[in-house]
Amino acid sequence: MTQRLTPSSALPLDTILIGDCIAEMARLPDNSVDLVFADPPYNLQLNGELHRPDNSRVDGVDAEWDKLGDFAAHDRFTKAWLTEARRVLKDDGTLWVIGSYHNIFRLGAMLQDMGFWILNDVVWRKSNPCRISG
């Protein structure tokens, strides 16, 4: 069982927590966080390699942290970390999530199903987007 910090314990201000997101958030008290910034796996389980327009290979497509198996496993992981994010966020807290077309639509549906209010989508139009090689 994870030991949870209490609100009275010295919760450091302006701190970036690095580690397994579910385990790190599980240590935090309810309603204690102003912002959760997440960059979850994009579920890039592709047959083949992913390349940029200059033909350089995109790292991470075959990395262990992105190997969740299938959509059901990816959805279970996503729901688990979103549940913890919801628990630790203050009532007026904010959730920022980085995504790609591989995961953001499934994520958006889950956010709405869990009662999150989606205020805005921020789109970063990359000048060097990835493409799938044939």
How would you characterize this protein structure?
With 134 residues, the protein is of the alpha+beta class. The chain has one domain. The chain contains three helices and four strands. The strands form two sheets. It has a two-stranded parallel ribbon. A two-stranded antiparallel sheet has the order 2-4. The longest helix has 18 residues, at 71-88. The protein is globular, with a radius of gyration of 17 Å. It starts with 20 loop residues before the first helix and ends with a strand. The model has no long low-confidence stretch (mean pLDDT 81). This is site-specific DNA-methyltransferase (adenine-specific). Residues 33-129 form the DNA methylase N-4/N-6 domain. It is an enzyme of class 2 (transferase). It catalyses: a 2'-deoxyadenosine in DNA + S-adenosyl-L-methionine = an N(6)-methyl-2'-deoxyadenosine in DNA + S-adenosyl-L-homocysteine + H(+). Belongs to the N(4)/N(6)-methyltransferase family.
Keywords:
134 residues; alpha+beta; two-stranded parallel ribbon; RM_Methyltransferase; SAM-dependent_MTases_sf; DNA_methylase_N4/N6; methyltransferase; site-specific DNA-methyltransferase (adenine-specific)
Q: Looking across the biggest beta sheet, what order are the strands in?
A: 1-3
Query: SSE string, helix = H, strand = E?
Result: HEEHEHE
Total helices: the number is 3
Question: How large a portion of the residues is in β-strands, by DSSP E?
Answer: 5-15%
Helical residue percent? 25-40%
**Poorly predicted residue ranges:** none
- Coarse structural class: alpha+beta
Distance between the termini: 47 Å
Q: Which word captures the global form?
A: globular
Number of domains: 1
**CA-atom Rg in angstroms:** 17 Å
pLDDT average, as an integer?
81
Q: How many strands in all?
A: 4
Largest sheet: 2 strands, parallel
